[in-house]
Amino acid sequence: MSHSAQVRPPADVFGRPLRSLRVSVTDRCNLRCRYCMPEEEYVWLPREELLTFEEITAVVALFTELGVEDVRLTGGEPLLRKDLPLLVQMLARNPRIKDLALTTNGVLLAEQARALREAGLHRVTISLDTLRPERFKALTRRDAHAQVLRGIEAARAAGFRRIKIDTVILRGTNEDELAGILEFGKQVSAEVRFIEYMDVGGATQWSMDKVFTRAEVLDHVSRRYGRVEPVYEDSSAPAERFLLPDGTVFGIIASTTTPFCRRCDRSRLTADGMWYLCLYAQQGHDLRKMLRGGAAKEEIRSTIVSVWQGRSDRGAEDRKALGARGTLVPIEQLRKDPHLEMHTRGG
Ligand code: SAM
Ligand code: SF4
Ligand code: SF4
């Protein structure tokens, strides 16, 4: 295979290509967002089981040789992983990666933005749910709002473009901030994406009545700004994009009321090398074991291909089809297997 040759990725049962990989580099986090990590205590992955940077780079290379082009680093909070810019540098040497991105809560971004940019990171997405410091503290249980704002500024100053801001909207918490956050996005030249609250593992406080829906977002935004036009594009990106009369573009990720499983080309690797085909999947595939057991590259690649070819996951659509429902995973089960947590497999 020559480096420049375009590789046709394997397709799953529904013809969805394996195009994008989210790599969680740590399960630890410096925030405790109520929709993600609401508990007092967590069971962490054993440190010796975390993939080294060499191992992550090697696994990512196997995926890109099969056609993956988009790689997103996530967590937990990825900036807590020591020397993350070094990993970025190692991945940035892989010419098959067309889009190398990072999702962060921004708390440590001011310190690291420049090094990440210099290491070759293409893009950052910063999660920010509120512009009010007190509300931030209540929602994340940490007093770090100012640090996040500094992080966003530092990302711009470091030269990042196409910055995104991801905002989970919860009824009764921050639905009064839609316009404020859109205006903030304009100010810092970032595209805002509103995310529906999902009943993923870890979201033990989830209930349908707290989901502020795509329809409600559109209704509120159009009442404030006037006509909201859909932006048509042929993409597997989870966000639907919309245009406001003043030219602002924003996105909605409506995984709860309008799931996009039909076009989902992404899978997830946990920090300890478990590979999950869906955010909702209960079982993963242990790539660390293969790697550390000395399996040949070809063997791991063909395992990835055959697993992907058997993929029929449509987690969010299946959840929606249930109608009335409670939380996805009972707390006792989460305590037994941290892999079921959103903060372990990355959002
Ligand atoms: N810690 C980093 C951050 O917050 O950006 C990266 C990992 S976090 C799990 C990735 C994304 O998942 C964040 O944007 C977060 O808001 C989102 N998320 C976590 N739990 C969620 C839930 N129950 N519903 C919707 N989005 C969720
Ligand atoms: Fe919040 Fe991200 Fe940490 Fe979850 S992993 S608690 S979303 S900062
Ligand atoms: Fe993809 Fe699963 Fe999310 Fe559906 S629920 S979009 S299949 S990760």
- Number of helical segments with 4 or more residues: 12
The sequence of SSEs as H and E is EHEHEHEHHEHEHEEEEEEHHHHH
Q: Provide the CATH topology.
A: TIM Barrel
Which structural category fits the helices and strands? alpha/beta
Under the CATH scheme, which class? Alpha Beta
- Catalogue the ligands: S-adenosylmethionine, iron/sulfur cluster
Cα radius of gyration in angstroms: 19 Å
Low-confidence stretches: none
Helix content: 25-40%
Sheet with the most strands: spatial strand order: 7-8-9-6-5-4-3-2-1-10-11-12
| Average predicted confidence as pLDDT | 95
Shape: globular
| Main sheet: strands, sense, barrel | 12 strands, mixed
Number of domains: 1
What's the quaternary structure here? single chain
List the helices and strands and how they pair.
Blueprint: E1 20-24, H1 53-65, E2 70-74, H2 84-92, E3 99-104, H3 109-119, E4 123-127, H4 133-140, H5 145-157, E5 164-169, H6 178-187, E6 191-196, H7 214-225, E7 229-231, E8 240-243, E9 249-253, E10 266-269, E11 274-276, E12 285-286, H8 287-292, H9 297-309, H10 315-321, H11 331-336, H12 342-345
Parallel strand pairs: 1-2, 1-10, 2-3, 3-4, 4-5, 5-6, 6-9
Antiparallel strand pairs: 7-8, 8-9, 10-11, 11-12
Helix pairs in contact: 1-2, 2-3, 3-5
The structure holds S-adenosylmethionine (SAM) and iron/sulfur cluster (SF4) (2 copies).
